[in-house]
Each structure stands twice: as C-alpha cells, then as structure tokens.
Amino acid sequence: MPLHPRSCCLLYSISCLLDALDGYAARLFSQSTRFGAVLDMVTDRCSTASLITFLASAFPRWAIVFQILISLDLASHYMHMYATLAMGGSDTSHKSVDKSRSRILNLYYTNKNVLFIFCFLNEAFFLGLYLLSFSSPLLSPGLLQQVPDSAAAAIHQGAQVNSSLLRQIFTNPYSAGALELARANKMDSFFPWVVTIVSFPVMAMKQVINVVQLVKASKWLAEGDVQARKEQGLPRKSRSA
User: Fold this and answer.
1) Is the pLDDT of residue 161 over 50?
2) pLDDT at 117
3) Are 207 and 72 in contact (CB under 8 A)?
4) Which residues form the signal peptide (predicted)?
5) Phi-psi region for residue 30, left (φ > 0), alpha (ψ -120 to 50) or beta?
6) Phi-psi bin for 185: left (phi > 0), alpha (psi -120 to 50), beta?
C-alpha cells in the first residue's frame, strides 16, 4: 500500500470481485455454510478496515473521520450479526431482515443488485481516495514539496553519496518521510477524482445504512432482554418492611 498504488489497487479490486462471486459459487455448488457466511463478512471488514487505516495515515488531518468510519462499520456489523444469532436463531442468516423491522435493511440485504452496487461503490470511494494520496497535491500538499540538494547534504555531512535519494536523506528508508517522498507524483489524479466524486453519495448512504443497522440491532437485542426479564419475573418488587 505505501509504495505500489497500481499493484495494490489491482489486487484489492480482484479481491472485491471475488467477494462478489464467492457466494454465487457456493450456492451453485451447494457448498453454502454458516462458517462461509461469517467468514465472508469478517474478511470484508478486515480488508476495508485495512484500507481505511492507510487513509488515516495518508491524510492525518482526517484521521478522526476514518476512525469513526472503521468503528461504525465494525460495530454495526457485529451488533447485527450477534442480534440475528441471538434473536433469530443459529439457522437464521444475517441477510434475512424482515420489512417490519427495517425496510431499508430488507432492500439492502435481499436485493442482490442493490447490495452489489452499494458495496462496489463504497469500496471504489476509498480506493479513489487511496489513489489520490499518490496523485493529488490538493489533498496531499506534501506531493508538491521538493527536497533541495543542499538540505540533503546538510543532513548527512560527510556521508557517502548514494545513488538512492532516500538513502541520502533518510536513515531509515521505511520511515514516514521516506515513504511520503517515494509516493510523490506516482500518477495522474483525473480518474481517481472521478471515481471518488461519483461514488461519494453511495458511500455516504452506506454509512447511513450502517447507523440504521446498528440502531435496529440494538433495539432488537433490548427487546429480547425485556422479554427475558419478564419471563424471569424481573424486576422483582421489593417487600415492604
């Protein structure tokens, strides 16, 4: 991720494509399992969180926003999965959402086209931001900065001149400064801007869905708690002295 944006973008895109196909393949070959359903969600969360974590380091001013997005994504999906298992039973899929509980979640999980579009454009937005961190001076002002030879010589007086600019300026080639310099001006920013702008509305709506999912799952669990306490005769009335 820090040094090879094209390779990373290609591999990440292939991963997303396979994620869209694995469920279809499992159903086609009658290999659908509960483990596979959980693994599918877990790998989605891990890959997205890894990409957003990089964005938090690439755009430190917006780190708090990326941290909130990661927290919301993990919390809403965990709460939804747990509520489905606890309240719906172990045989109930997390994609089985009744309209009476939430129309928007029912549409999101039961309509394969809607689910694919939202997931695809959500990932496309973060990939677009990722590519912009290598190409847009507007978002990454550090891409405009040039290190003069005199500054490099001053930092390492008497050091042997090396053909690698990173080794001349940075003792550790994996430091934040060295990685930032290596990332500079890797590509044109036109297409990353197009992808980011086009996918932004869907990404924003995806976060709304995450909030709805978190709230609905929390209420469902709370309703179960209330019912369980009633069956146990709780809260018990205190005896008067």
Assistant:
1) no
2) 94
3) yes
4) none
5) left
6) left
Handedness of CA 108, 123, 40, 76 (dihedral sign): negative
Q: Is residue 40 flagged as an active site residue?
A: no
In the three-class reduction of DSSP (H, G, I as helix; E, B as strand; rest coil), residue 191 is classed as helix
Q: Are 239 and 152 in contact (CB under 8 A)?
A: no
- pTM exceeding the 0.85 threshold for the entire prediction: no
CA-derived radius of gyration, the chain = 24
Computed from CA positions of residues 1, 5, 38, 103, in that sequence, does the dihedral angle turn out positive or negative?
A: positive
> Cα separations (Å) of 93 from 32, 82, 106, 153?
11, 11, 12, 63
* CA angle, 59 then 60 then 63, to 5°: 95
The 10s digit of each residue's pLDDT in 127-150 is 999 998 887 767 766 555 555 555
Token pair in block for residue 114: 């809607």
**Active-site residue, selected from the candidate residues 19, 22, 40, 44:** 44
